[in-house]
Every structure is written in structure tokens, then in C-alpha cells.
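C-alpha cells in:
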């Protein structure tokens, strides 16, 4: 099992890994979760998949097992910045509630947003925890290499149960919200204490 951080600068080195990641996202978010998201050629993508972002993939023998996207909170592409901020500003059409944060969404070179987090449904239960731990470790390592001291994300509201198990230091930065298919909450993860 390998964990790879993909960028537009190194995408050519990794063969089909990036397209396989987008295919796995389609399977997870469109097929399994039945979310209405953009897709083409069997891949799921959105306005945040730009050269400013990075993607962490856990993979084995060409098969993507899990993935996550990192986007700087300083990103700009047309009217878009990053998902949490754009939801708060109301430009996502109400897909995500605007009142998802207690304060104004940060714009800071040391804070990155994590989004499009998934572990493939086909990963056997006996391997899921290991794959999840690899993904979280890859996320934290990639974020630190990008200069992040924190990353923020809109995640399942049960995060307090597994954050400590993963050795993560997190805090709620918004209320628990029920929308789409569950309960979600914005969380900030402090990377300065997890330096290994």
C-alpha cells in the first residue's frame, strides 16, 4: 500500500493515478452516495480541482483505495475560492448551509481546506482502519509540507470518536448541521503538535 501526494507539477510522474482517483471519487460520491456532482469520462470533478490544489491517494497496484483533496484557503479561480468559504458566502446555491462556521471563513496561507474525503466502499472491513490511518497520515504530511499549520474540513459529525485514535488535535469551528445524507461539522486540525 502506498500513499502519494499528486499536484499538477508531478501528475505526469504518476501515470493514471490522478484519473483513477477521480474515477474512485465518482464511484464513492455519485454512484454510492447518489450526489448530483459534475462528471465526465467516468470521473467526478468540480471547480476546486485546479492547479492550486493537491490530492492525496492511498493506492495499491494501480487501484485507488482512498483519497482527499487539499486546497489553500487563499485560492481564487473566477468567483470561487474554496468550498467552505464559498458555501458561507452563498455561491454554491444552498447545497451546503451558509451558517456552517461560527466565524468568517479563514483566508490564510498557513490554513488549507481538506475536502472530497473518501475510502472506497470496496475496501474490506478488515483493511478499512489501516487505509483510513494511511490517508490521515498522508493528509497531515502533505499539509505540513505545504506550510500548513492547520487544515479545516466539513466532515462527519462523529469526528471526536476517531480523531484521538488517529492522534489528531481538532476543534469544532462550526455547529453540527444535518443536510444531504447525514450530520456534518466543520473542524480545524492543529498540525503544529503532530510533527512526526
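Residues out:
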Amino acid at each position: 500500500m502506498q500513499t502519494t501526494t499528486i499536484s499538477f507539477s508531478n501528475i505526469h510522474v504518476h501515470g493514471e493515478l490522478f484519473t483513477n482517483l477521480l474515477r474512485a471519487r465518482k464511484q464513492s460520491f455519485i454512484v454510492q452516495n447518489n450526489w448530483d456532482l459534475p462528471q465526465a469520462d467516468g470521473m467526478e470533478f468540480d471547480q476546486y480541482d485546479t492547479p492550486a490544489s493537491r490530492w492525496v491517494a492511498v493506492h495499491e497496484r494501480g487501484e485507488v483505495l482512498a483519497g482527499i483533496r487539499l486546497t489553500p484557503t487563499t485560492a481564487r479561480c473566477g468567483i470561487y475560492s474554496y468550498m467552505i468559504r464559498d458555501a458561507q458566502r452563498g455561491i454554491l446555491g444552498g447545497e451546503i448551509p451558509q451558517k456552517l462556521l461560527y466565524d468568517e471563513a479563514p483566508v490564510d496561507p498557513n490554513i488549507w481546506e481538506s475536502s472530497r474525503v473518501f475510502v472506497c466502499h470496496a475496501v474490506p472491513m478488515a483493511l478499512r482502519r489501516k487505509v483510513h490511518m494511511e490517508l490521515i497520515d498522508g493528509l497531515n504530511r502533505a499539509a505540513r509540507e505545504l506550510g500548513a499549520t492547520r487544515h479545516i474540513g466539513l466532515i462527519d459529525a462523529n469526528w471526536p470518536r476517531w480523531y484521538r485514535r488517529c492522534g489528531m488535535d481538532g476543534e469544532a469551528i462550526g455547529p453540527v448541521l444535518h443536510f444531504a445524507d447525514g450530520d456534518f461539522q466543520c473542524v480545524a486540525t492543529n498540525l503544529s503538535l503532530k510533527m512526526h
